[in-house]
Please model this.
Amino acid sequence: MNQEELFKNLISHCKEYGFIFPSSEIYDGLAAVYDYGQLGVLLKNNIRDYWWRSMVQLHENIVGIDAAIFMHPTVWKASGHVDAFNDPLIDNKDSKKRYRADQLIEEHLQKIQDKIDKEIDKAAKRFGETFNRQLFIETNARVVEYKQKLNSLHARYNKAMNENNLAELKAIIEEEKIVCPISGTCNWTDVRQFNLMFSTQIGSVSNESDTIYLRPETAQGIFVNFLNVYKTGRMKVPFGIAQTGKAFRNEIVARQFIFRMREFEQMEMQFFVKPGDELQWFDYWKKIRLEWHKALGIPDEYYRYHDHEKLAHYANAATDIEFRFPFGFKELEGIHSRTDFDLSAHQQYSGKKLQYFDAENNESYVPYVIETSIGLDRMFLAVLSYAYNEEKLNDGTQRIVLRIPYILAPIKVAILPLVKRDGMPEKASEIMKMLQPYFYCQYDEKDTIGRRYRRQDAIGTPLCVTIDQVTLEQDIVTVRHRDTMKQDNVHLSELKNYIYQMVAIEPTLEKLNQYAGIFA
Ligand code: ATP
Model:
């Protein structure tokens, strides 16, 4: 099965098992908006909790806030979003489909890169061990030609983007004969700028000044509270403020399920440092954040850094942690060194001093900022696209299993009486009562035990506790593991601890805590 089919199956699986539903589905849904179902909400809460506790609980110099979604409209003027939070859009006149001009060009550039990679792979196979990669890239006529084209197109595209030259973007699309994937034609409209912020009116009288925006990022709620937190929390630089919450972007092309949505949730942390120390802290957070991902046990080859060559005018370093989604490596999290851009802008627009007083050196300054920013929904998709597996078992049967990291799994334990008689359901209920205060449990007595295991595999439950005759006689249950399908006998007096060791978040936090500080 190819990745595309697998991804389709994952999307239907998410719906069938109550993870994600299209929004307002009885009215045929709303594009790029989704609702989380009974299991989805638990998984989402667990991811958020893992992030929050790694940031706020493990770092004594990071505190959390929960700012409102609505903010003073000038915030978005100062942040640059009113003037510059735009995407260049273009329509195909034949298919009437809308695209982001920058994405069309970037996909085209990627195709040229793919051609280069293909030539190199072919040659590597042909020459075997004697293959000199660098020499081949420098001398093979076809590769050299592709490379030249790629470089000059890249430069032209970057210049057009930096100068906001929309006519030039259109010229590139036309000259490169980039076609609409639906109509196959090159019949394009002009490129226009489109602001991604949703606006609405506040209060009952409507005039210009009442226009407010749904926040397109949570970060600004942190910047405008910098002084409040610094003063009331008696914080000392370096320190951080973390926040999770909804953000809204009127994305032109929203696709790939929950990868790009119009309403989504972010988990962001802004770390305030002394000017001059920012690149050292940037490296620190780059490493810490990757460790956070890896601690989940998803193999290393799913992650890579993508350092930005083209930086936003206010940034002096930026990198993405990319994840290998079924549709390729894509940004999962951004780590940005934002200098003092935001605080200085708010200082200018608000007229309030947003400075830190360094008592040791008796000086005041506007701190520099390192930001870590990850989409909760995108992380959800990363976890599920790794977890979803269609497996052939040794006995020839098939199972769908969600290999969700145990600490994130929505239901931790299934409680399964072997049969529906002989006092087993009663005993199972007692065990359920014992475990419920500690773990999310699901009771199931319907169908054969094999079928019940399959149902739990399909929702990613790490452990199934089976109650049988031995349980009635000796207080011993069998615990079956989702990934290995191996079974252990466990005495009831040990059960809670046994499960805790397997599924609790704390041992992972303990592991992560060893990293905190060591890169600094
Ligand atoms: P992209 O290039 O994918 O549009 P971005 O660079 O605009 O993302 P940021 O503004 O840095 O993204 O936002 C930080 C994080 O928020 C991203 O890494 C991503 O995980 C998440 N995110 C951004 N836009 C969306 C969206 N429309 N839907 C879901 N998650 C999003």
